[in-house]
Backbone:
């Protein structure tokens, strides 16, 4: 297990299952307990809705629990792919905030015939 | 563990263990976690161990925030989305990868094609998919020409999304909320500086009546500069209901306010001022002849106080126009066109013919025509000078015919200008004729300008003519690139049409 490589998904390289906010935080806690040097934990949130509260943007799960987006993240691509409907979001958890990497949304609002419904939101490497 | 424990620990770490011991709560916590007291490992080790433990706890022990209610979802727009080909074209245009050339020309051509794409989407009963909207909203925020077609093609999702970003508020749902309007009126009433007039302008756009009411309320307490600027804001959404305030302002104690009132009143067709202008013109116009009417328009004498009150000025005369001719131009511009047709029984054609030989008469008539947006007068006067605004009042074919007639004798620079004002979309014969004529253009600047015009308005049927030209330009790299960009634009225009067929042809 490499401690230094923040991008490495520790734990067998398996994409974590999509969960609600509580379970995602549990997974973050376990990952940090196993390796306190990690500064980044991948999470997959199921059925979350992006919503603003004041200046911050959050992902809200069906129970009303929410996690904040990193303030440096532009919320608009995420918001446009959800338009208030629940979506699945792959994100990095770092310093108490989420950086979304990909979103899986219902095709109802999106370019229907234009490829898969999973959209990569991650900035290019080095950005 | 609470934040205080952490802060104490940090304090110890900062001043050093020689001066400060391990804080008791931290020591207790460590003992609890490790199952034993840190023992004799030394104060430094105890502080660092406690720091490690508590830091990890703080990072992992995030409490879930609950009770958030997301906003209601966007209503689903049931119209179908454009197909993959159409979306690919959109992505090329938005990404600036459509090969339309660099610089200002490439940018305007891209914008024109985006407008066409959006208009076509709306016209064929489709709606833009939500994921494409943020880029389009950003673009239309800077390029206002894109806004109307984007509103039409963006559907309910567009308004929903726009309502969530202040930068996109122009696209948010139609009716302005009362709160926003109230806030603008309040800024006008109690604000300071340039922001006040801006608020009034904004308010005028949303609710003209309310804006006038807000202006009337503070009118008597305003300084002259503010009164003049506020009157100019009335030009936005001007209507007959604004006339009493403007008419009263013609007698304002400040000259700048009187000038502003006259300026705005001149943009209001059918005003009392326009009647007074007709009164001034009446004695100057003599119609004679029985079979063939002759029209004579005399120059006016020095304006009297009433004429000055209506804003007739000496300043601003075009080069080579005398003072009396300039006064006449202002009187004619302010007189309703019905004076010529209904009162004097003249046809627009006859008046326009007479105006050919009297520049100030022609310019005044053109101003009046633009104000009343009268297509018959526009057709009669466009022969004198094909101003783009006049052409815009004509049926497209008539406007193109008019430009075509002038194209024949035009030199290179004039040609480029004529193509720039020819209203889009062009017909196939017009486009092919323009391309054929362009091949003889030597001046690079004129050619670039003209090619840009072809790209913006040209019919795709001119594609083969452009390809033939490109093939012959093998040795002229720069010129070939410019023509190639225009050919790209025309083929994209065709591709947009084909990728977005009318609804009946949809599978």
Residues:
């Amino acid at each position: 297990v490499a401690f230094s490589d923040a991008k490495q998904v520790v734990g067998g390289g398996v994409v974590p299952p999509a969960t609600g906010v509580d379970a995602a935080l549990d997974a973050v806690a376990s990952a940090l307990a196993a390796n306190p040097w990690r500064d980044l934990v991948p999470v997959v949130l199921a059925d979350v809705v992006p919503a603003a509260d004041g200046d911050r943007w959050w992902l809200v799960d069906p129970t009303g629990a929410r996690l904040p987006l990193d303030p440096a993240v532009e919320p608009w691509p995420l918001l446009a792919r959800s338009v208030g409907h629940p979506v699945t979001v792959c994100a990095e958890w770092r310093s108490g905030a989420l950086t979304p990497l990909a979103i899986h949304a219902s095709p109802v609002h999106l370019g229907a015939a234009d490829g898969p419904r999973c959209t990569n939101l991650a900035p290019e490497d080095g950005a | 563990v609470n934040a205080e424990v952490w802060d104490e620990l940090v304090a110890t770490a900062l001043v050093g263990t020689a001066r400060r011991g391990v804080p008791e709560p931290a020591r207790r916590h460590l003992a609890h976690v490790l199952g034993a007291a840190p023992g004799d490992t030394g104060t430094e080790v105890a502080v660092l161990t406690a720091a490690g433990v508590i830091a990890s706890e703080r990072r992992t022990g995030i409490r879930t925030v609950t009770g958030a209610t997301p906003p209601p979802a966007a209503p689903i727009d049931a119209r179908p989305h454009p197909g993959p080909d159409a979306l690919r074209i959109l992505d090329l245009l938005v990404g600036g990868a459509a090969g339309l050339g660099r610089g200002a020309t490439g940018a305007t051509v891209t914008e024109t094609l985006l407008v066409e794409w959006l208009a076509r989407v709306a016209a064929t009963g489709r709606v833009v998919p939500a994921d494409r909207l943020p880029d389009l909203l950003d673009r239309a925020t800077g390029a206002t020409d894109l806004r109307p077609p984007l509103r039409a093609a963006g559907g309910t999702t567009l308004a929903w999304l726009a309502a969530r970003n202040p930068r996109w508020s122009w696209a948010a749902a139609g009716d302005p909320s009362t709160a926003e309007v109230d806030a603008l009126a309040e800024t006008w009433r109690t604000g300071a500086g340039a922001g006040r007039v801006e608020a009034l302008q904004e308010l005028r756009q949303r609710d003209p009546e309310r804006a006038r009411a807000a202006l009337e309320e503070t009118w008597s307490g305003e300084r002259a500069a503010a009164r003049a600027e506020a009157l100019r804001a009335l030009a936005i959404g001007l209507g007959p209901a604004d006339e009493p305030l403007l008419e009263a302002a013609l007698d304002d104690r400040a000259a700048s306010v009187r000038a502003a009132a006259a300026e705005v009143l001149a943009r209001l067709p059918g005003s009392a001022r326009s009647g007074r202008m007709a009164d001034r013109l009446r004695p100057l116009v003599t119609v004679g002849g029985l079979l063939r009417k002759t029209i004579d328009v005399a120059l006016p004498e020095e304006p009297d106080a009433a004429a000055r009150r209506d804003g007739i000025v000496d300043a601003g005369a075009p080069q080579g126009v005398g003072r009396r001719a300039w006064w006449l131009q202002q009187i004619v511009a302010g007189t309703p066109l019905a004076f010529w047709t209904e009162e004097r029984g003249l046809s627009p054609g006859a008046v326009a013919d007479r105006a050919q030989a009297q520049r100030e008469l022609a310019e005044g008539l053109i101003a009046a025509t633009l104000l009343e947006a009268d297509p018959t007068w526009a057709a009669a006067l466009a022969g004198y000078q094909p101003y783009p605004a006049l052409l815009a009042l004509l049926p497209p074919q008539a406007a193109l015919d008019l430009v075509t007639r002038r194209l024949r004798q035009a030199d290179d620079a004039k040609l480029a200008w004529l193509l720039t004002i020819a209203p889009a979309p062009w017909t196939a014969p017009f486009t092919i004729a323009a391309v054929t004529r362009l091949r003889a253009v030597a001046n690079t600047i004129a050619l670039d300008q003209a090619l840009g015009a072809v790209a913006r308005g040209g019919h795709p049927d001119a594609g083969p003519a452009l390809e033939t030209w490109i093939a012959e330009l093998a040795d002229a790299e720069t010129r070939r690139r410019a023509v190639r960009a225009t050919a790209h634009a025309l083929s994209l225009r065709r591709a947009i049409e084909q990728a977005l067929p009318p609804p009946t042809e949809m599978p």
Remarks:
- Chain B touches chain A through 36 residues (CB under 8 Å).
